[in-house]
């Protein structure tokens, strides 16, 4: 091939959170790193207040996201159907710039709980096999919360996370989440300010005997110098957050928190607007030799490297592994193979409510201004006799005050146009609130990825095919959570209430207010028969390939995934630096 | 071509998926970083002057429809007075009207409702075809009169039927066309005035949205109180 670049120690595919964190760790350890990002360079200054405060451009027209005409995926609910391309903007919000989805995310900054990492063994230990519904595929991650804790801590110190600790070194701290895994110390910055709706929720759920606490947030509450020496500033609660960039150095992002340090490293090089086509394998197929890429103007090239880090969006990680033929594709009939296996998502339930006469001032918000209760999340409550596992974080979320988006927040039966609409809209604007249940998700036999046999991308490569619908566990846990959300909506005095269990309908990528947390497909674990990666996110099939991101999660928790993605990236970086580079080979023997 | 126009045309090319290599770069600790991608430049107010996409006749009918959807009353001026027809005209002439972001490769097949739209016309085309269909229907039913010449009850009746899926036209699903009209009129009434609608920020005043503000820290503790903040536009002098 003509266009072969000089060999690097490491090539990283994708420059979102996990790619940038990995690059920062490895370059600091002295490795030469080349990163390849298909999107454009973005700096925080791109989102100045003269540019950012524009709902139509960023939220309605989604100028910051990957358009389907650049890359789509195909979808069907079950494998008896023919998958068709998701042609228009869907609820999956894929990044398309340096910073990835970490530039436009909502910034909810959760750790998963200890039991989330051992969905199988913990369930068996507490309830026995009878608790697991037919077809559910439960397995442990191979890494524990305790092992990840120092890396969670490190990531929070890079992100500047604002929060209130609930448990430090086993001791409960008033005002925090009493159910959380024990932390080694408090958050780097105190909780972000709360909305009026958050306060109403806090007062009522306390009265109901629950344990409300501030949702940890990457909307930094005061000026802070992060672990990489980068200065962050206090969030101004401007209300242009999720789906927007942040010029204020207030929202945790690779652009604000990592790139200023990383770009100073002489060991680092970044290729933008360059798409990786596939990972190249050695002749014996047991290792990778680098990647083949194409630039925006159509030049194909090759980047050789000793280590390949796959750090694109979850969907793209799965697709790249399939296109590169690393690991065995999952076969839903025989239940064999691992690439594309364990696709899971998130089970959302809501109660929307309308007060009679409030002033909620919804325009004052962040992407995750919220108070939550974890009393019904994960395994924080006894599931005996309930017929499901998991639950949801139930929160009063104040993230919605932009007027075009708000048109969707009118009660059913309200006029959708005319004078009546104007009155209903005006009333709803100050009186609408939501109780959101962000629920767990566990994969099952009918949920998987493979390559589409028909539909192609602009380079002629097959699209990723998603086969997904909610399973029985989702429907049951979603119904349980819906009821809890509705109970709270009634208790706070909602004059009108609508509640929904999304898992009661067939899944569609087009549902408003649905999660964008798409999970699994190249999961980590202890057994090469059921996981694509070992506990260090290292491919069982090619030891110099590491895959980062939510594609590694065998199951999803009732939380947003980003901080766990970051902690896992650091955990893997340490394993590469401390062990792998000294003696390249499998970090876990089978 | 001046700089702004050059940037706009590159942004449109890239939005259409046409190769635009303006920013592809190899960046390292010694290189100057690019000043953001072309399409992250300052927002450009819409072009002045007459309609770009609509004919005068189309604009008149759209105005009549929009003014039923958002009529003038004590809460604010009508949609057409607020600029929603101009807003929609400029949107249809741009990437939105061309469905620039949509995946268009075939084969085209009908799917389940969960699989979403598979073979929609572009929004610009849907207006063109839909308005012809509506016009033909109105003239047949009401003695040669177009929609804009009907009385309020007749107009409301037609729109109600379209919304309910009880009235369609040749080549146009009435319910889908209604949804597109409603989406655009609301966008025009509620987006920043730089896009041509929301005159005097009427839509924002209607609900008490303060607009393109940057800092609410002084107000966050005034919980449960009316704040009565005057809205501000992204770019004063846009209109």
Could you characterize what this model shows?
- Chain A is an alpha+beta fold.
- Chain A folds into 2 domains: 1-162 and 227-345 and 447-469 and 516-590, FAD/NAD(P)-binding domain; 168-215 and 347-439 and 472-505.
- Chain A contains 13 helices and 25 strands.
- Chain A has helices at residues 17-28, 49-52, 55-60, 101-104, 119-127, 145-159, 196-207, 254-262, 314-323, 403-406, 418-431, 472-491, 562-578; strands at residues 8-13, 33-36, 73-76, 84-85, 167-168, 171-172, 213-214, 224-225, 231-232, 268-271, 274-281, 288-295, 300-310, 341-344, 347-354, 369-373, 392-398, 432-439, 441-442, 448-456, 462-467, 496-501, 519-521, 545-547, 555-556.
- In chain A, the strands form 7 sheets. In chain A, strands 1, 2, 10, 11, 12, 13 and 24 form a 7-stranded mixed beta sheet that branches. A 6-stranded antiparallel beta sheet of chain A has the order 7-16-17-18-15-22.
- In chain A, strand 20 and strand 21 (462-467) form a beta hairpin.
- Chain A is globular and about 70 Å long.
- The mean pLDDT of chain A is 97.
- By secondary structure, chain B is mostly helical.
- Chain B has a domain at 52-99 and 120-207.
- Chain B has helices at 3-15, 56-69, 84-93, 123-141, 152-163, 174-190, 202-207; one strand spanning 26-28.
- In chain B, helix 2 crosses helix 3 (84-93).
- The model of chain B is unreliable at 1-22 (pLDDT under 50).
- Chains A and B meet through helix 2, helix 3, strand 4, strand 10 and helix 10 of A and strand 1, helix 5, helix 6 and helix 7 of B.
